[in-house]
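Thread title: Can someone regenerate the structure for this chain?

I was given the following input by a collaborator and told the matching structure tokens would be attached. They weren't. Posting the sequence so someone can regenerate them.
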Amino acid sequence: MTKARAIPVSLHEPGEPLPRGPRLEAFLELGFRPLYIAGCAWALLSVALWIYAPQWLSAPLSGVAWHAHEMLWGFVATIAVGFLLTASATWTGVNPLKGLPLAAACLLWLVARIGYLAGGNIAFYVAAAAETAFFLLSALALLRVMFKGKSKRNYGIPFLVLGLGIANCLYLRASLSGNYMVLMQHFETGLICMAVIALLVARRVIPFFAMRAIPGLAIPMLTRSGQAQMVLGILAIVLGLAGQKAPMALALAATGLVGLYQIANWKPQAVLRKPILWILYLGYAAMGLGLLLAAAHVAGFGSAAFARAAVHVHVIGMAGFSVLIIGMVTRTALGHLGRPLQLDQSMVASYWLMLLAVVLRLAALVPSSAMQPLLHASAAAWVAAFILYLWRFAPLLIRPRL
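Best answer:
Regenerated them for you:
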């Protein structure tokens, strides 16, 4: 892909000062403000802990179990909830969470992160209860505004968020038993549930963002294929819970192929010079590819290397979710903060750092003497990407919209 030229502009108008100072009411105005900061900060901290200080992770949720949990439910799902709480206000005209209720949701999230790190059974149960309450509160808030705003096409979204919470409960229970096979089954359920949410949301917003950014560009919304994709994704979850591996693999493969079909019809050649768009295209395409690899894993196809769960998990989780996230938390924050939809050099740098982290992490999956150095280099690029994002956006997210 051709490297795009960064536009050296500020995130506010030339000569215009930032609002005088941070304001709590602005910070708690919409879900994306605190949850984007929390999710991105936790993304860099949790990876730094996992790679550079794993000895700080204490049972009962420790090691790979802690890392997988915090990446999916502590990072990816947090950003997704922040986006949905914000987008639903636009879809329905009703803000689902703001002020003290939003602060309560963020406090529950924080208690969960601290509890899992603290170790010990009491802290674990407190963290599990807080995290369950976080997903339940978010799902109920979304359900309330969907019905109040009569947003029928979005009625399923609160139940997908609730599904994320249920999969999280099952995962936490399995972590106490020490049964790795059961643990990974519940992780796969959560991963696919998150993938269905990501595909559903991204399929709607990517064409809209592209047509708004490029005058004259016409992109089909592909509503029918999107509906089929959602049904197939949910079917894959149900079949997985029922232990039907072969049909589940077919449903996963079909979901991934639909995603690749959609991205091919969104005229990707038109966005090559728009980093704020091509980063979303790349993430969406990686999601489709990752679901195909997941199907191969479930069906038992492929070589020994590609049959490992770590391959499709990292393709979906890093190349898919994380690449989409670094693009979405930039684009949606600019839009909701009333800023020009243009990037400065630090933001484009964060995109390239994220892509570098993905490439290095996938390379580290190949058994070799370079695995450890590649892993450390990937973590460093990952941390740098989110430091750049927080450095640029945190001051804006805590201040009023222009």
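The two ends are 35 Å apart (CA to CA).
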